[in-house]
Amino acid sequence: MALDAFDRALVAATQGGLPLVARPYEAVGAMLGVPGARVRERLGQMLDQGLIRRIGAVPHHVKLGFVANGMSVWDVDDLQVDELGERVGALSGVSHCYRRPRHLPLWPYNLFAMLHGRSPAEVQAQAAEIAALLGPACRQHDILYSTAVLKKTGLRLKEV
Q1: What is the pLDDT averaged over residues 131-144?
Q2: What phi and psi, each to the nearest 5 degrees, are found at residue 132?
Q3: What is the CA 148 to chain-centroid distance, rounded?
Q4: pLDDT at residue 81 in the model
Q5: In this structure, are residues 78 and 110 in contact, taking their beta carbons and an 8 Å threshold?
């Protein structure tokens, strides 16, 4: 689907994030010369049409004090990984969780869960909770700690 001039202006106005104000859609609308309700309506339509995938908050974990960030990797029985992965992903300390293919013999892990803590001990406690949940379906696991903060960006429109 082609973007019209308003859609392009809307994406350009929001691609760096919504303004951190009490009424962000009103603020974007003011930038575009339309009511905030028009911004909300069109963003909703764009979601429904698949032009954008989601609108969400992306926290900067380190600035929030979560300096121990680790991807926990798990070798989980293939017959149980989907059901158990859903349960792991629902835990409060897990920001995202997904299944990935193994690359044997070097990489036996098929379930990944990102953990955030104020210390490595907090992350290890969260991993222990996951280990208890997985029980005997888990053969081994590890935690790969982040060493750098990578910049996260979404869609960027090219200037024409």
Answers
A1: 98
A2: -65, -40
A3: 17
A4: 98
A5: yes
> What is the helix, strand, coil percentage profile of the chain, to 5?
40, 20, 40
How far from chain centre, in Å, is Cα 140?
25
What's the CA gap between 140 and 111, in Å, rounded? Answer: 11
Q: 45 pLDDT exceeds 70?
A: yes
Strand partners, 98: 112
**Of 127, 133, 128, 138, residue with least CA distance to 78:** 138
List the Cα angle 78/84/86 in 5-degree steps: 120
CA distances from 73 to 111, 115, 140 (A): 6, 10, 9
pLDDT at 38: 97
Long-range CB pairs of 14-18 (<8 Å, 24+ gap) are: 14/43, 15/154, 15/155, 15/156, 15/157, 17/58, 18/55
